[in-house]
UniProtKB/TrEMBL annotation:
CDD domains: NMNAT (cd02165). Keywords: ATP-binding, NAD, Nucleotide-binding, Nucleotidyltransferase, Pyridine nucleotide biosynthesis, Transferase. GO terms for molecular function: ATP binding; nicotinate-nucleotide adenylyltransferase activity. Its EC number is 2.7.7.18. It catalyses: nicotinate beta-D-ribonucleotide + ATP + H(+) = deamido-NAD(+) + diphosphate. This is Probable nicotinate-nucleotide adenylyltransferase. HAMAP family: NaMN_adenylyltr. InterPro entries: Cyt_trans-like, NadD/NMNAT, Rossmann-like_a/b/a_fold. Gene3D superfamilies: HUPs. Residues 6-161 form the Cytidyltransferase-like domain.
């Protein structure tokens, strides 16, 4: 049975922290692949102003150099609000020979009690939590925790830097930074 990690997010933009988390969990759990799942409309965040095609392209650029990273567009294709339960149920139904691991940061671990159909979801998938500064990995739900090197960066931080005309070098893959500049995203020139 194949073992696949799922890393969802708006990826607005995808950054080195996303890649570090995916690689560390891949190595630690001996996964076959990690699938990046860009969300269409996440229920826990305000809507992004970045076009979904731009976020998808940035995510593809970010993972291009890693052969065990893939993109799955299930949430974009479904449209509307993206609930993890719906995504996981669809993937399990479609890929019966795969064991899935849902990768999340400490901020999402704390939010689990508010997730749609969480009691059913924990029976379907293994949750993997990675530490994030200022967040606790304790939960009333079963979470497999993975220690990773601390690299504190967020998409919000990167967007703010770019809006201020500051560099995002070493926070983003070079290909993603170039795309942002070419497309004039986040007020870049």
């Amino acid at each position: 049975m194949k073992k696949i990690g799922l890393l969802g997010g708006t990826f607005d933009p995808p950054h080195m922290g996303h890649l570090l988390i995916a690689e560390e969990v891949y190595q630690e759990l001996g996964l076959d692949e990690v699938w990046f799942i860009p969300s269409n409309d996440p229920p826990h965040k305000t809507a992004t102003n970045t076009k979904v095609n731009d976020r998808l392209e940035m995510t593809q650029l970010a993972i291009d150099s890693n052969p065990h990273f893939k993109i799955n567009t299930i949430e974009i294709e479904r449209s509307g609000t993206s609930y993890t339960f719906d995504t996981v149920k669809t993937l399990i139904d479609e890929f019966e020979d795969i064991q899935f691991y849902f990768i999340m940061g400490g901020d999402m671990v704390e939010y689990l009690p508010k997730w749609n159909r969480i009691d059913e979801l924990v029976e379907m998938i293994t949750f993997v939590g990675v530490k994030r500064k200022g967040h606790d990995l304790t939960s009333p739900y079963p979470i497999q925790t993975i220690d990773i090197p601390v690299f504190e960066v967020s998409s919000t931080f990167i967007r703010e830097r770019i809006m201020q005309g500051r560099s995002a070098r070493y926070l983003l893959p070079q290909s993603v930074e170039s795309f942002i500049k070419e497309q004039g995203l986040y007020g870049s020139e």
